[in-house]
Amino acid sequence: MKNNVLNEAREHYSAARRLAIKEYNKYASKGESGYLPSLEGVIKNTDIVSEVNLGIVEIPLKKVVGTYSHLRSLSFARNFMPLLNENTEMQTKWVNLCAAHLEEGIRDPIKVYEYLNWFYVVEGNKRVSVLKYFDAYSIPADVTRIIPKYDENNHDIKIYYEFLNFNKITGLNSIYFSKKNRFNRLLKAIDSLNIESEAFKENRYKYFERYIYIPFREIYISLGGKNIPITTGDALFEYFKLYGLPFIDTSKEEVTQRIRLLIPELKSLSNVDYANIQTSPLEVKENLIQTLSTFVIPKKKLKVLFAYAGTIESSGWTYAHELGRQHIEEVLKEQVSTEYVENVPFGEGAYNVFKDLAEVGYDVIFTTSPIYHKETLKCALEYPDIKFFNCSEFSPYTQVNNYFGRTYEPRFLTGLIAGALTKNNKIGYVATSPSHEVISSINAFSLGAKLVNPYASVYVSWTGDWNKGDKSIDADKKLIELGVDIISNMTIDVNHPVTKMFGVYSMLTSINSETQKPEKYYAAPIWRWGIFYEKILKSVLNEQVKNITDIFTGTNKSYNFWWGIDAGVLDIYYSKNDVPEETQKLVEFMKRMIADGLYNPFTGPIYDNTGMLRIEKGDTATYEQILSMKWYVDNVVLLET
Predict the structure, then answer these.
(1) 201 phi and psi, to 5 degrees?
(2) Are 316 and 326 in contact (CB under 8 A)?
(3) Backbone angles phi, psi at 614, to 5 degrees
(4) Residue 391, SS3 per DSSP
(5) pLDDT score, position 271
(6) Which of 72, 186, 290, 588 is the most buried (most CB within 10 A)?
(7) What are the angstrom distances between the C-alpha of 208 and each of 260, 336, 545?
């Protein structure tokens, strides 16, 4: 029996070595090292603040990625499989360990260092190799944690410090994220679990690991997750954002189906390509589209639905989109029929509405608010034959098309007006929440003010909600009490003439110091949604003409429209009576410069409000930098929420 086990173990060594050679060659062909990483090399120039012994801990083998010394690393490929020839001491020891594992299982703990939640073996490399070969989940280890000095500018270290807090509370080290704030959100979700099992009531974190995370990981890996270059934690988080934690009131079959639908989106998230954003409309010849589309789809108009967050009567935002829908009814009436639904609820209620609409058989569904992005994505995953468009900033999902404007361009122009007209250099700005689009708009507005008035400061007051009027009033009040004499995004009477023209419901206004009420209505960015929707639907029609198979196969192609002043979808309204003529000339001149691509509001040098140089002199921010903006320019002052 012993000889049979040894012979089997020798066959396993040969198979493991073949895996090692394949792994080594994969990296060598790219000019990279195919050997195991060594901790000596990883932390060579790192400032280490402490080492902490954690004792014996069960660690996931997927997190064991290297060995301590460079010399030892040369014995293994990156997948921890053995590289050394047969008939060597390595083979003998590996085979004996393998035989022991086949008969009894490897139970002796290894010794490791942990750095940034990855483990590097000091003693027990061959035990790890054998267990990884058999795809074991974990191994006991005597762990010493190496903690680097905190660095505000190092993304990996900042996330690691979040992990340290999560690990201290939960004792879990099997899950990891690549983006900030995810550990805290997961912790809140776990803490809210209603656990009925008596065995896990005292340790809900182990329950989460055993009955939620590990089963999710098994399904995810079985569906190809191992080939997606994101952490399994990131994949779980994307699932969680859409559906909540898996296996809570959901069957294994339902979770599996959801993950299967989500896999293409996770692949796109792992390789965000900002080059796919359409920053300018494709010019399409009108007569060609009308002729060809009539030939291809002679009996069926494109059936389009607009989903509104508010009512046309009470919401300026909704009214503006309704003007756009009416424009479509006029200019594309031979090819498109439209309908709309008002007052779509938020959250799960929106998903139910969109699902019901999808069953009706619309070809295109526009969900006209960023608050519906999650629910739109859920429906788009389930109805791939329908083109869903969500009105929100760029997101790298393949099933949901996004459309929005480069709002920072007209915001820059309103900033010019604010900077020119402020008397005390204190300008207020009401904002919803710090998304990338909101931050870039604040920054562009502040740069516009600074361009004409280097002494002007912009004070930002947050509402925290997308469309809560009472919170906007509170935000206005904070700024007025601070003594600002101009406010951007001041809520206005919906009966103002500009509301009927463009759906504008907030403006750049002066503030009367005595009454603390708006005095003069100076300016506002405006959307021309009719032009936006016309160009989008022509692009859809044109894509159908160019790819006739799409019509019959339901093949879906994702669009990300991010158009600006040059496309005519964004503009600025300003009062010809209250804005001085010389300021009007400057605004018109800068608008033409932006439209012609001769000026970018984000032209360096630009410093943030901590004094860091963000954009070098003579450089302009790339679209990627603008779409991921997280900092504020140096004349911005953020008020506490």
Answers:
(1) -60, -30
(2) no
(3) -100, -35
(4) strand
(5) 67
(6) 186
(7) 22, 49, 50
Task: Give every strand in the sheet of 364-367, ordered side by side.
Answer: 336-341, 302-307, 364-367, 387-391, 400-405, 560-563
- Counting every residue written for the chain, the total comes to 641
**Half-sphere exposure in the Cβ direction for 488 (13 Å, CA):** 36
pLDDT score, position 200:
66
590 DSSP 8-state letter: H
Query: Each residue of 348-378: pLDDT tens digit?
Result: 899 999 999 999 989 999 999 989 999 999 9
Which residue, among 176, 177, 94, has the nearest Cα to 132 in the 3D structure? 94
Q: Which residues of 61-117 form beta strands (DSSP E)? A: 64-67, 110-115
**Model pLDDT, residue 152:** 84
User: Rounded to whole angstroms, how far apart are CA atoms 227 and 271?
Assistant: 13
3-state DSSP call for residue 120? strand
Which pair of tokens denotes residue 115? Answer: 């750095």
Question: Is 430:479 a contact under the CB 8 Å cutoff?
Answer: yes
CB 282 within 8 A of CB 565: no
Cα Rg of the chain (Å, integer): 29
CA atoms of 407 and 441, how far apart (whole Å): 6
Residue type, 112: V
Q: What's this model's pTM, rounded to 2 decimal places?
A: 0.77
Mapped onto helix, strand or coil, the DSSP state of residue 492 is coil
Q: Dihedral through CA 233, CA 235, CA 236, CA 240, nearest 10?
A: 130
Look at 78-82, 394-398, 579-583 and tell me which has the smallest mean pLDDT.
Answer: 394-398
pLDDT tens-place string over residues 510-526:
998 888 888 899 999 99
Q: Which helix (H) or strand (E) holds 250?
A: none
Closest CA to 16 of 98, 74, 72: 98
Query: What number is the average pLDDT over the span 202-229?
Result: 91
Give, rounded to a whole angstrom, the gap between the first and last alpha carbons of the chain.
Answer: 72
| CB of 537 closer than 8 Å to CB of 574 | no
Grade residue 561 by pLDDT with cuts at 50, 70 and 90. confident
The token pair at 394 is 């760029």
**Burial state string for 171-194 with b = 16 or more CB within 10 A and e = fewer than 16:** ebbbbbbeeeebbeebbebbeebe
What are 341-351's pLDDT values in tens digits?
999 998 889 99
CA distance 240 to 167: 20
| Residue type at 457 in one-letter notation | S
How is residue 79 written in tokens? Answer: 């997948």
Percent residues over pLDDT 70 in the chain:
90
Each as own residue / partner, the long-range contacts of residues 98-101 (CB below 8 Å, 24 or more positions apart, any chain) are 98/9, 98/12, 98/13, 98/130, 98/133, 99/2, 99/5, 99/6, 99/8, 99/9, 101/130, 101/131, 101/134
Exposure letters 252-274 (e unless 16+ CB within 10 A, then b): eeebbebbebbeebbbbbeeeeb
The first and second tokens of residue 552, run together, are 């019959």
* Residue of 145, 199, 203, 193 lying closest to 170 (CA atoms): 203
pLDDT at 401 over 80: yes
